Amino acid sequence: MLFAFMLSYDLQDAKLQTEKEVQARHRAEQYLQESRARLAEAQREAERLSHALSKRAADPAQYDDGKPVLPVTMRFRKSFWGKGLVAVIENTSDQYLTLVLSARNPTLSTAKRFQIEVKGGDDLDFGHDDGWQFASGDEVGLFHNDFKALKMIVP
After folding, report:
1. Fewer CB atoms < 10 Å away: N or C end of the chain?
2. Are residues 145 and 74 in the same domain?
3. Are residues 73 and 145 in the same domain?
4. Which residues, in sequence order, are bridge partners of residue 99?
5. Residue 103 · residue 112 · CB < 8 Å
6. 3-state SS of the chain?
């Protein structure tokens, strides 16, 4: 009788343990299925963004067509203190602009980006003290999300 009771108790314990393992496996399978769905969605989004980026890289001008002209002028002068040239960036609007300046020297195969801020109606000198020594032939671009890009080659 005691042996039968112990067997019955062990059997119930084994059933409970099996049920717990089945529930844990079910939760793990559900989590795996949800993770696969999230991964598939992320892959679709990455593919969509990659496609959009490749289209934009193929024809960047079409994305700037609806934007107004950047209210900035840029000229170059010789540096007073150091070597090279200095870019004089003038904000012709009355609004404060945060711009990205991209500079590339094709001869040395160097490039760098800078974030610059120009008050409305003000000008900014940018040169070797700020991190880039301009030279003739450098490619320079000024970018702002709301305006067409301003690109030029240093004379």
Report:
1. N
2. yes
3. yes
4. 116
5. yes
6. CHHHHHHHHHHHHHHHHHHHHHHHHHHHHHHHHHHHHHHHHHHHHHHHHHHHHHHHHHCCHHHHCCCCCCCEEEEEEECCCCCCEEEEEEECCCCCEEEEEEEEECCCCEEEEEEEEECCCCEEEECHHHCCCECCCCEEEEECCCCCCEEEECC
Indicate whether 19 and 79 sit together in one domain.
Answer: no
Q: Do 30 and 79 share a structural domain?
A: no
Per-residue pLDDT tens digits of the chain, which is 155 residues long: 666 767 777 788 888 999 999 999 999 999 999 999 999 999 999 999 888 777 766 665 555 667 899 999 999 999 888 778 999 999 999 999 999 999 999 999 999 999 999 999 999 999 988 999 999 999 999 999 889 999 999 99
